[in-house]
Amino acid sequence: MVKVAVVGASGGIGQPLSLLLKLNPLVSDLALYDVRLAQGVAKDLSHISTNAVCRGYDKDQIGEALRGAHVVLIPAGVPRKPGMTRDDLFKINAGIVKGIVTAIGQYCPDARILIISNPVNSTVPIAVETLKAMGKFYPGNVMGVTTLDVVRAETFLADYLIAQKKNSISKQYDKTKMCKDVTVIGGHSGNTIIPVIKKKPLISTLASAYDEFVHRVQFGGDEVVKAKDGAGSATLSMALAGYRFAEQVLKSIHRENTAPIPTYVYLPGIANGVKAQAKLSTSLEYFSLPANLLDGRVTSVDDTILDSLSPQEKKLVERAVKELETNIDKGKKFVNGNSKL
Ligand SMILES: NC(=O)C1=CN([C@@H]2O[C@H](COP(=O)(O)OP(=O)(O)OC[C@H]3O[C@@H](n4cnc5c(N)ncnc54)[C@H](O)[C@@H]3O)[C@@H](O)[C@H]2O)C=CC1
Ligand SMILES: O=C([O-])CC(=O)C(=O)O
Question: Any idea which positions bind NAD(+) (predicted)?
């Protein structure tokens, strides 16, 4: 019996994400919360003939939505418009995430918390600091969802490899199987997104397309924001990505073995987090690395990936660190004071 709550369930991501969760047999209760329309979305989904019981909760019912939840997904907040960076969303989304996480600390402090709201590089530190201040922080419970970067990396790598080989061996690059070839570490914005090619010879295969590949993974979000022309950012691909991550958490809660999956976590709280920091030659408290899950929580990260980086990938890590430091600091200060905002 697993209760999953979606906070921001009526939004562009929230609705398709809730649909996918309604289809998952590992979910027994699906609680949909939003400041608008959640009752309607829940009623709609409740007609689907799967066993998860789906209920909607109005603005003043967050306590009921969260009480007893084992997993909480947070796609609440405003999305970007063309010309904005994810950091531009901080002003509005920081307060939204802090408020929601405060309610989680109050009503379901043990829940695994999956944060989708941008800027993820800062909203995850906001969540952690909020819970710490409440005395309710359990390391490994708070996970920043960076899976969309992985999904994009798989898609774009296959596209470039197929183009490189002029379609002659395109079957070799089945997009659904690219997870063995590429993953993504770092953060979730522009230069902090670091695609890591697992099979290093593929970097030479990509040749001059390598830089273009990296750029598309780092700025894939901007492509969608531009194409939607003021109507928001990625929602459908994000719903799939959020679901892909949530599915691993659910399987892990059900004692199924799961492969390591990247997530943006608080490193000092994880078994080998300090070792990972040393390998990164930084004191960064947050970084996305493939994470091992136990009971739906991060227990350790795969720091060995940092031993195998190519010279190009090492440079990407170096470039990411400064921006991540600033983003993390901004999130921490928002909760602990000294924020200039
Ligand atoms: N982590 C990632 O890879 C990605 C993150 N995002 C982020 O996800 C967030 C949501 O994006 P969309 O679904 O497109 O936006 P949206 O505007 O379509 O939906 C957001 C929903 O959040 C609700 N909401 C606002 N304040 C709330 C509160 N205090 N409590 C509960 N619900 C609240 C709104 O009513 C709305 O239904 C944005 O911050 C966006 O930048 C988007 C794509 C990828
Ligand atoms: O680009 C955005 O603002 C939404 C997002 O995080 C993504 O699509 O990766």
Answer: 8-14, 34, 93, 116-118, 238
Q: Which residue's alpha carbon is nearest to atom 9 within ligand 2?
A: 221
User: What is the CATH architecture of 147-336?
Assistant: Alpha-Beta Complex (3.90)
Residue from 58, 89, 238 to probe ligand 1 pocket by mutation (most atoms less than 8 Å from CB): 238
pLDDT digits (tens, 9 = 90+) for 113-149: 999 999 999 999 999 999 999 999 999 999 999 999 9
Residue-range domain boundaries for the chain = 3-145, 147-336
Q: Which ligand has the minimum distance to the alpha carbon of residue 12?
A: 1
First-to-last alpha carbon distance for the chain, in angstroms, is 42
Q: Is 188 annotated in the active site?
A: yes
Q: Which residue in 54, 335, 85, 46 sits closest to 188, CA to CA? A: 85
Q: Domain 3-145 - what CATH class?
A: alpha beta
Tokens 């997104």 — which residue?
193
pLDDT per residue over 254-312, tens digit each? 999 999 999 999 999 999 999 999 999 889 999 999 999 999 999 999 999 999 999 99
Q: In this prediction, does ipTM exceed 0.90?
A: yes
